[in-house]
UniProtKB/TrEMBL annotation:
Annotated PANTHER family: ACETYL-COA C-ACYLTRANSFERASE (PTHR18919), TRIFUNCTIONAL ENZYME SUBUNIT BETA, MITOCHONDRIAL (PTHR18919:SF153)
Catalytic activity: dodecanoyl-CoA + acetyl-CoA = 3-oxotetradecanoyl-CoA + CoA; decanoyl-CoA + acetyl-CoA = 3-oxododecanoyl-CoA + CoA; an acyl-CoA + acetyl-CoA = a 3-oxoacyl-CoA + CoA; octanoyl-CoA + acetyl-CoA = 3-oxodecanoyl-CoA + CoA
EC number: 2.3.1.155, 2.3.1.16
Name of the protein in its database record: Trifunctional enzyme subunit beta, mitochondrial
Amino acid sequence: MALMLMKSVRNSPVTSSWVGHTVARCLGTSTHLQAPGQPKSKKTLAKSGVKNIVLVEGVRTPFLMAGTTYNDLMPHDLARASLQGLLTKTGLPKDAVEYLVFGTVIQEVKTSNVAREAALGAGFSDKIPAHTVTMACISSNQAMTTAVGLIAAGQCDTVVAGGVEFMSDVPIRHSRKMRKIMLSLNKAKTFGQRMALLGKMRLSHFAPELPAVAEFSTGETMGHSADRLAAAFGVTRLEQDEFAFRSHNFAKKAQDAGFLSDVLSISVPGKGMVSKDNGIRPSSLDQMAKLKPAFIKPHGTVTAANSSFLTDGASSTLIMSEEKALAMGFKPKAYLRDFVFVSQDPKDQLLLGPTYSTSKILEKTGLTLADIDVLEFHEAFAGQIMANLKAMDSDWFAQTYVGKKSKVGSVPMEKLNTWGGSLSLGHPFGATGCRLVTTTAHRLRKEGGQYGLVAACAAGGQGHAMIVEAYPQ
């Protein structure tokens, strides 16, 4: 597939010059920071006889680079802080919540059901069920859609969905041979049995198994996949650096303007209050160009500057039936209208989830890209984003791989991630989905739009997309 893509898609109109001009135009204008205009008069996606489900509020801890201020905490500490922040911001009585679900990827063994432990720590009743889901980088997307499903099925009216990831302290295991011996030692009944088992130990058994962000099915790290994908679509190093430059500058502008209102101020024991993301670092293209390839050396194009960084953080959303929300006096932020999940080849198409899911959700809802006012796509790597933009703008890719007669279309950059993205804000694997949806709702309100589209890729060659509709102001 990679060779076919290189021959057929790399000449897509998304060129380095185009990226540079788009970045300059977007950074030089304040249209995405203006007060809301007149709402569009598009037809609503509400369906007769189908319960309206709304996002009432979304919050998150500051997203911090791994190994910094959160270093001495545990995942449930961050999840608990996001839950407490959600309760404080909404004034929601704890006993009004009927279910909690959280997403996470690399689980802390001591708190494997982190949703339950965080809920108990935040003071929720022990009578409220909670469970944890994992679906790589779309884990909190899965948590939110699980909440939607519970409400749509009539099981609940009020669900808290969120996600957490803590990369500052990930589980490190003994080798399998060492584990077998240690488990057998635990069962040994005599001194002789224990000595015989100890005699089987070898120095090599003590080597730890470090976790890696790699595909189990292919053994390839996601960074390598991103590098190959960028090459297949002809995405240059300059294009990737320009997109990362754009992300950091947009994030900085949004942070300074106070638009990142979902970020909580939380107290970290011994380190004081934390109230801002610390990975937003506008640089210059010249400085970015000096970095060496991070994965495929020496000719790769993916670097530390155009990749998302390892991040600690948690997010929480309050999702309710519209009827219940209004009865409790809440003013919802947005309707959660529809969603899809997709899967494809994890080797050659690992990070193309946004292309497949966007095509599928637009067809399902009868919308087009022209109907979408706000686009929030997960930025795992700049090369991944740019490859998806080219794939969406390719009839050949649509016909050959997506099974459609024509392309999704050209993504309008002035609508895409204009408050920054995962490259700059950070990417706590299990928590990013809630950030994307909350940001979409906030941007719709700020910009006067009606429809928002969230899309993301995930390990395993999977993806997700959701249509968010602004709640009438």
